[in-house]
Amino acid sequence: QVELVESGGGLVQAGGSLRLSCAASGRTFSNYAMGWFRQAPGKEREFVGVISWSGGTYYADSVKGRFTISRDNAKNTVYLQMSSLKPEDTAVYYCAASRVVGTTTPRYDYWGQGTQVTVSS
Fold first, then answer.
1. 79: which of 22, 43, 85, 93 is 20 to 30 A away, CA to CA?
2. Are 69 and 50 in contact (CB under 8 A)?
3. Are 93 and 4 in contact (CB under 8 A)?
4. How far is Cα 103 from Cα 89, in angstroms, rounded to an integer?
5. In angstroms, rounded to a whole number, what is the distance separating the alpha carbons of residues 50 and 36?
6. Which helix (H) or strand (E) holds 109?
7. How far apart are the C-alpha atoms of 50 and 30, rounded to whole Å?
């Protein structure tokens, strides 16, 4: 079992930055790929990006060049640094853990509760 807790969400103006954190507990964190997803009201949950156990990253086109995922295995924490934020980035952001590197929700075994990010125009 892996428990995930996101933090760092909030209200930010367009063009601003925000860093989300996801703290993991339970099974060996370093064995898991960690993904970030988001869900806006009335929309399906969508892939944002993923970081493998070795640190390789992959991003959705909508956030590429603006968002950066990193991880600190010593702290069992993964981060999502968001820059040049746009109103369309407004959503609940979730971190998730998977034994494989994937971009779809069924690939992920464990999910956090989510943290709200609101970008005002």
1. 43
2. yes
3. no
4. 18
5. 6
6. none
7. 14
